[in-house]
Amino acid sequence: MYTSPDEARSDLFLAGAVFLFGPLLLGVVLDLLPLDGIPGFGLVLAVVLPLATTLLVPWLLIRYRKERLSDYGLGVPAQTFLPGLLLAAPIVAAALLAGLLSGGDVLADVPVVAAAASGSWVQLLARLVSWVGLVGLAVYMTVKARDAFRGDPMYLRTALLQIGRIVGLVAAGATVLLVVSTLFNEVSSGSLGVIARLVLLPVAVAGAVLLATQRLRGNVLTARPTLLTPVVLLAIGPFALSLNAVSFVFGVWQAAVLAGVGLLIGSLLEARRSALGPLALGLALAVTTSL
Fold first, then answer.
1. DSSP annotation of 79
2. C-alpha–C-alpha distance, residues 15 and 24, integer Å
3. How many CB atoms lie within 10 A of CB 205?
4. Do the Cβ atoms of 141 and 278 come closer than 8 Å?
5. Alpha-carbon span 255 to 279, nearest angstrom
6. Most confident stretch, 97-111, 179-193, 211-225, 229-243
7. What is each CA distance from 81 to 73, 78, 229, in whole angstroms?
8. Could you tell me how far CA 282 lies from the centroid of its own chain?
């Protein structure tokens, strides 16, 4: 598969624009339509809306360009699923440990456990669909970035460490500010649980990145813009500007953590040329963490 740089950039920017602005536009349209009374509408919306803003445009562009799904890492050996689960393990462990340190039920914040306990699976289904769509979009945009942006070739491990250091510094700064802000308030068992989550999740993502540098093939060549694409995508997706200082810093913290996840997705894709590893990572985070 090859598309010209101009075509690849147009495809990439179109898919990214729909992801960023599609929910807002669809929300305005849906508010104007009297659909609330339709049985099952909430369930359909929870499934269709994330897919419409993530995978719909890539799917249409793939068909328009007459590309193959194998060009995007599908239809590869199933064992490429396992590295994604391996890199998800530190993040899942950190989420469980944060729940334990909060003093409550360690499994209360695990989405799949909460869904089983309440008998309500809509929220879990929505999380699964959202993560599948987000990972699929990240995979699509990473592949497009190979043709869209020319950069000096470098080893995957080197690019991973360079980008990871920057993301880690941002996460560390936001974490320190949030911890200090929390400590200035009344310290309780609940606030200790918040501090544990603020500290453990960035550390776990950093640990997963370091694990990736050891476990993924280091002789693979990539380019820095290729790896930066999923990092930026996941970072700006949930980020929202706020005039409240604490809310703003928390947005930066969340963006940095998800940027680390985006770096893992890009690294898995570049190392294995398979979308199954990133998909495994996304599914593991969807069912076991609150990210």
1. G
2. 15
3. 27
4. no
5. 20
6. 211-225
7. 11, 6, 22
8. 7
Most confident of 4-8, 81-85, 248-252, 282-286: 282-286
What three-state secondary structure class fits 163?
helix
Residue 241 — very low, low, confident or very high, per pLDDT cuts 50/70/90? low
Q: Which residue has the higher pLDDT, 24 or 270?
A: 270
Kindly report the length of the chain: 291
C-alpha closest to that of 145 among 231, 77, 57, 271: 231
Q: How many Cα atoms within 13 Å fall on the side-chain side of residue 191?
A: 11
Q: What are phi and psi of 221, to 5 degrees?
A: -95, 140
99-144: per-residue pLDDT in tens?
Answer: 777 766 666 677 777 777 776 777 888 889 999 999 999 999 999 9
CA proximity to 160, closest of 12, 268, 274, 275: 268
CB-based contacts of 38, cutoff 8 Å, min separation 6: none
Residue that has been written with the tokens 């669909």 in this structure: 129
Q: What pTM value is reported for the model?
A: 0.91
Going along 85-225, which residue ranges are E strands? 153-155, 221-223
Residue written as token pair 């699976």: 121
Quote the distance between the C-alpha of residue 197 and its chain's center: 18
Distance from C-alpha of 255 to C-alpha of 171, rounded to nearest angstrom: 8
- For the beta carbon of residue 87, count every other beta carbon within 10 angstroms: 27
CA distance 203 to 290: 16
Residue 212 half-sphere exposure, CB side, CA atoms within 13 Å? 37
